[in-house]
Amino acid sequence: MGDIKPDTIPLLTSASQYSDWVAKIKGVMLFTGCWGPVLNAFPPEGEKAEDWKKKDDQAKGLIWMRTATNYHYLLETKEEEVDGVKKRIAASYSAKDMWDVLKKEFGTPDTAEAIGLLMSFSNLPPMTDTRPLRDQLGTYITRIWDASNGGMHFTESHQAVFILMKLLPSYSTLSTSLTSSHPLKDWTIEWIQGKVLAEESLHSSTSQSMTRISKTKPKPSGPCDFCGSGTHHESTCWKKHPDQHPKRGGK
Q1: Bridge partners, residue 81, by sequence
Q2: Tens digit of pLDDT for each residue in 213-250?
Q3: What was the pLDDT predicted at 222?
Q4: Alpha-carbon span 140 to 162, nearest angstrom
Q5: With 50 as the cut, is the pLDDT of residue 251 above it?
Q6: What is the mean pLDDT of residues 122-136?
Q7: Could you report the per-residue pLDDT of 102-111, keeping only the tens digit for each?
């Protein structure tokens, strides 16, 4: 390890010094050439498996030595449900697995990144009727999931509300109906998506019907301003337009 000794890395004992621990152990791993296995579970193309395993073992050794012994159980066991009861069972972890376990246990989301992900969703314009809503919903759902998983930890019902807020103004009736008839705790992304797509189908059918009606122009009716008859319009008056009178006998 050259001039760098493992004890230059603080012992990981709490979340309050996790960021300092990460900075120092990462520096040692970079110096000793074993940082790669923390980032990737498998060797890059061209690297021998045995060489990669040596780096992985070295990284695991550093993580193990610089983690307080009362947390070693996190590095050698995993939680599983057995017969309806959650238990910890033995597990064989790679350096990356160990790193991820400790990050989950002690790490805190980067505030700037978490806010940035939420702003990415917030800055999306409202949905438009010029594109299928299914495609647009996919984008919005992905962004709000990213924000939630990135540190905001929104419940699914909260995520569903965010999606509803991005709907077109013409869907305000649907929004009012959903908010007044369904408890928030029952809201899910899948449920909101289904309701929106059903409403889009209804809007499409109504629009098509209105188009057909507008194209079917009623014939003008009486009274006729030319002859005074109440049975026809001036535009179809045979007295004014004798050429429109059907010829008798086919002549």
Answers
A1: 86
A2: 455 555 666 678 778 787 777 788 878 888 877 766 54
A3: 64
A4: 9
A5: no
A6: 85
A7: 988 887 656 6
101 pLDDT more than 70: yes
pLDDT-based confidence at 1, cuts 50/70/90? Answer: very low
Long-range contacts at 20-23 (CB < 8 A, ≥ 24 apart): 21/66, 22/107
Q: For residue 8, which amino acid is it?
A: T
- Tokens linked to 113: 């990144």
Residue entry with tokens 């999606």: 163
Q: Name the average pLDDT for the chain.
A: 83
What dihedral do alpha carbons 122, 128, 132, 134 form, nearest 10°?
30
Two tokens, residue 176: 């009012």
HEC per residue, the chain: CCCCCHHHCCCECCHHHHHHHHHHHHHHHHHHCCCHHHHCCCCCCCCCHHHHHHHHHHHHHHHHHCECHHHCHHHHEEEEEECCEEEEEECCCCHHHHHHHHHHHHCCCCHHHHHHHHHHHHCCCCCCCCCCHHHHHHHHHHHHHHHHHHHHCCCHHHHHHHHHHCCCHHHHHHHHHHHHHCCHHHCCHHHHHHHHHHHHHHHHHHHHHHHHHHHCCCCCCCCCCCCCCCCCCHHHCCCCCHHHCCCHHHC
The two structure tokens encoding residue 67? 């983690």
